[in-house]
Design goal:
This protein is mainly beta. It contains 6 helices and 45 strands. It has a 14-stranded mixed β-sheet, with no helix packed on it. A 13-stranded mixed β-sheet has the order 25-26-27-29-31-32-33-35-37-38-40-42-43, with no helix packed on it. A two-stranded parallel sheet has the order 4-6.
Length: 731
Amino acid sequence: WGLLLLAATLRATAAARCPAACVCDNLRAHVLCLNGSLTAIPDTIPELTRELDLRGNSFMVIPARAFLATPYLTHLDLQRCKVERLEEGAFRGLGRLVYLNLASNGIVLLYQESLDGLSSLQQLILEGNRIEEIQPGAFGHLGSLTVLDLRANALVYLPDMVFQGLQVLRWLRLSHNALHVLGSDAFAALPALRRLSLDHNELQALPGEALARLDGATWLDLGHNPITYVAEEALAMASLRHLFLDHASLQDVAPDAFAHSPQLRILDLRENQLQGLPPLAGVGGLVRVSLDGNPLLCSCLLRPFHKWLARARVQAEGACAAPPTLRGRSLDSLKSPEMRCSHLWPPLNPTAPPEQPRAAGSRQCPQGCVCSPDFHHGSCENRNLQEIPRGFPEDTRLLDLRRNPFRTVPADAFPGLKELVSLHLQRCSIRVLQPGALRGLESLVYLYLTDNHLSSLAAAAFEGAPQLAYLDLDHNAFTRVPAGTFRLLPNLISLHLQHNAIGELAQGDLAGARGLRWLYLAGNAIRHIAPAALAPTKMLEKLQLEGNHLAEVPTAALWGLPALSELKLSRNPIKHIGDSAFLPVASSLQHLYLDNMGLERISPHAFTGLGPKIRSLYLESNKMSNIPDMSNFTGLEILNLQNVPFHCDCQLLLLSRWINKLNLRVGATCGSPAEAKGLKVKLSTTFQTCPGWGQGKAEETNPNKTKAASKSSKKKRSGKSPARGFSKSRA
């Protein structure tokens, strides 16, 4: 009877503390305050409450420390509460919370500390707000988050590293926003991500560079975006199995568009503007291609794809839209002899009669080409044309002339195309762009000249194309950067010169490229970069030099690049990195690639000046046995030390401790001594005989003491002095 009386007393006490207009279920530790007129978080909620449902109230602002009185909460629902602002520290004290629903509110901005204190949170629902901007670091304290739902907001742009800190995130939902620009590192540091939803946005091109960071993602939804073309090798996602590109505006897909996504199983291309597809290379595991709702032209041009389907045993869903005799026939019911070219108009047969005069009001299009009035595209791909055709509609915005043996682009080759934005001249055997070749293309932004035979360029070739921003000259025959070419291109942002035969970067080579932000020079034979070679490119953000013949870090050439955030030196024969090698760009550098170089030694002061700004560091597949102190690299999201033969003796003890404290998978293993070979550095027992090993273990088992000591040392240490040893871990 005494126990029953005590229980009744406790229930009565708890009930007395239940806020007005709320329902408290004390047995289940649930509190519901639904659809009321609450304007502030009640302060009389029972302390032991685990699930709190506040849907349909009017809080407007969630103030700092609003839930300190309920530290045992695991589930919190704040849907439809008219919340417009989350103050910094709003959820501080909710270290047990695993589910937070803030859907259907009016939140506009996520501040850096808005979500501080939610170290156990697994699901965060922000659907249906008005979020326009996410400040860097907003998710930095959510190390346990597995699902992030940002659907139906007002996001236009995703900056680099915006999801920093989400190490175990598995599903990122960004559908129904207005995204049209993604930073190349927007999805960096998401090693556990498996599913990405980007459907119903405003992406006009497949964001291949940003997506390439997602090595483990298996599901990608890009449906309902105005993407018109999937280019060569556009998607490099090693684990991708399901790709949705339905209800887009696709006109064409390159044969090797998915060659670097070898695990692809399902490809959904429904409801696009595709008249056909080429055989797809590099997708040996593909099971199904969905083409329903496309205007498929079942002519002889579709035969290669049809034969490939049978040979590769790929199921295709779709039906012919033309010619009339085959309209409605499913692809799998067709036989090759039925797919004839006599149904094409204009005819492809050169002996066919001349084209008849067009009726008044009809649109012009060169014979043998296809022009789309709805999407303002023109295409004469792979028609064996010897000369660039003329007569495209004046409102053409994308012109695809790939795979024709033009050899030369003459002056005034594209008359009347003042609205042309994108010009594709890949694989056209081009050796010469004559002066004035692009004259009149005053709106041209993208020019693709890859896989040709160009060895030089005259600046006058670009006369009349002042808006050109993206110039792709990969896989040509350049032995040096075409000096002087860029003086007529004041808006050039991105320059691709990869896989040529360039031997050096000389002073003056980049004269005039003052707005250049991305310079790609991988796969050349560059041995030397003059100290002033990069001086004109003061806005440069990315410099990719991997796969060249550099024997040392080009430190002198890096001065005067205050915006450089990414430097790739992978696969250069650099054996030694000296002191202060990256000091010229220390204030801006975020991503550094030093992998696969045969690197034997890194000077103890090689990384002088680098510190918290570094987000990713790649050192894998080298030959050094130790690395310098990096304890002040507190912002690291990616550190790769795989295939480095570390010598696991007492000199490596500090590195071992530092690695143990990092919340990262670094892949560091011992190469010697023999008893430790092959073991992970963090697990090696060779350190147990080292002086100070016991002290380190004591700190690891007594974290409170370690934190107190760390705070004390921070007070004593000057902010300008670098931390010594590998004792400081990332928060």
